[in-house]
Amino acid sequence: MKSFVYQGTPSRVVFGTDTLAKLEEEIDLLGARRALILTTPEQQALGERVAHLLGARSAGAYPNAVMHVPLEVAQAAREEASRLGADCCVAIGGGSTIGLGKAIALDSGLPILAIPTTYAGSEMTPIWGLTENRLKKTGRDICVLPKTVIYDPRLTYSLPAEISACSGMNAMAHAVEALYAQDANPIVSLMAEESIRALAQSLPAIVVNPSDEKAREEAQYGAWLAGICLGSVGMAIHHKLCHTLGGTFNLPHAQAHAIVLPHAAHYNRVAAGEPLTRAAKALGGESAEDIGSLLFALNKRLGIPLALEAIGFPADGPAQAARIACASPYYNPRPFEQEPIETLLERARQGLLPA
Ligand code: NAD
Q1: Which of 129, 202, 264, 300 is deepest in the core (most CB within 10 A)?
Q2: Beta partners for 140?
Q3: Which domains does the chain have, with CATH numbers?
Q4: Of the residues 11, 112, 122, which should be mutated to test ligand 1's pocket, given the most ligand atoms within 8 Å of the CB?
Q5: pTM for this one?
């Protein structure tokens, strides 16, 4: 066996249907007394419900989280936390809300208790992001990793089927790339494989019935494992392309991930033959050669739009995005090559099968 380094993520996880009821107990365990509750404006009612549940333990609700954590929103939230004398943040929502909690923690060191309601996985990573003048800066700092995470699958029932599907494939992308990461290791690979299996099993059932209890539990379990993958090992070409599509072309995060994944995995099918065979098997297939078509078929079954063009990627986008990606590549098992990447993006733009 090759030697490797495994770094565990030091967070406490409380998992299961109706575990939101344990929130007060978990805040006590953190040694905190006054929680600032963060949500987006769309999830304000949920924030208020949580504030009510916490009673005197709630310092107040702050329902202003938005996508990509603009610096001015982060600063206003930091001021509110300090004005209210909060000693921890409860971030309840998707990656945008947890991102706001991280921006507060980065500045003040306040511990975060995260309650994820999508499958994006930010709660399991020490990665923060802040946007200033339309430029997103990201970094790693262990102080932004949530100390406690409550996964209550019941809170995901309200996530519409089509968003659940894309968000679940966003999680799947973390797991697929973890298998061929530069610093891949056997422990994280086990979690990646199990994550792919759990997501592939549960997402189709959620699309049929967004309140399917068993499927919601399994999807959130898969998303948790995928979040560990994202926080533990480096990501590769797929994430580089999606960061470019989000940053330069402003494409929606989860949808872009879902559409690009079959193409990016197909790009690596030879250079990462063994890891992608594991991924293919977890999807019910046979070999790395099938990985693109297996993921493409899953997207189709989930009713995800298959073409980047449908979410706003322009005709001259592939050449530009390929140039940007090749100018500052991430590690990838197959080197970044301008022309094949342009072809990959053009096929993704048109919604064609990876080839
Ligand atoms: P999001 O947090 O932006 O949520 C999208 C919308 O869905 C919001 O309006 C939200 O209120 C709503 N929503 C969330 N859960 C819901 C539910 N259960 N029911 C109904 N509505 C619900 O989306 P996201 O995909 O979770 O997060 C994307 C952001 O997270 C991006 O900015 C991305 O860069 C960031 N992210 C960061 C990391 C990291 O490690 N730092 C990891 C993954 C994603």
Answers
A1: 264
A2: 127
A3: 12-156 (3.40.50.1970), 161-350 (1.20.1090.10)
A4: 122
A5: 0.97
